[in-house]
Structure formats: C-alpha cells, structure tokens
Design a protein that fits this description.
The chain has 113 residues and is mainly α. It is built from 5 helices and no strands. It starts with a helix and ends in a 5-residue tail after the last helix.
Length: 113
C-alpha cells in the first residue's frame, strides 16, 4: 500500500512539494504572529460527561488528545508534509525522528526568555 501511494505521489512530486512549502510558510507566518488562522485557536470541551468509569476514562483520553492538537498541529503538520515530500523514506524518517526527539524545541528554548 505504501509503495503504491509513493509511486502515485512520485508522479506529482513537484506540485506536492510546492503545496507542502506553501503550507509550511503559512504555518510559519501564523507562528510568528503576522496573521492568525482562527481555526487553529478553536477549542471544544466536554463539560458534562455521564456514564461509567470506562466511558468517562475514554472520553477524558479523547478530550486530552483533542486538546493537544492546537499545540502540536502546525509544527507537526509542517514536518509531516516535508517528510512526505522527501526523495527517500529514510530522509522522511530522519526528519520525524529529529522532531520526535524534541531537538527543534530544545534548540529554541535557550533563545527564549
């Protein structure tokens, strides 16, 4: 399955690369504060959850995961788009490994005050 998807995307490598670059630039401009994407600031909460412990735990896991989406969404989307447009699978895996290790965030933290 992954190989067939890779072959299909290889045909459209140039347009997909341009699209991924534009999305990354837009997310970068959003993160710098030059403009706001209001959809990234939306918030949905579950205020009254009724049911047993299993249902409550499941809904809490869902709410926690859904709440983290705005925190990692723009950066992770950019990394995934960039990783998906790489020439080899190894390069994409390397980009995701660097992101997963937290290196981009660690390199920025000494600069923030």
């Amino acid at each position: 399955m992954a190989t067939s998807v890779g072959q299909i995307t290889q045909q459209y490598h140039r347009p997909l690369s341009l699209f991924a670059g534009i999305v990354i630039i837009i997310f970068g401009l959003h993160l710098t504060g030059l403009f706001k994407i209001n959809a990234l600031y939306s918030d949905k909460r579950l205020h009254s959850v009724k049911g047993g412990a299993s249902r409550s735990a499941r809904s809490h896991r869902f709410a926690f995961a859904f709440g983290w989406t705005p925190c990692i969404g723009p950066i992770l989307a950019g990394i995934l788009l960039l990783a998906g447009s790489q020439d080899t699978v190894f390069k994409g895996i390397l980009l995701l490994a660097v992101y997963s290790a937290g290196w981009p965030f660690r390199s920025c933290s000494p600069r923030s005050e």
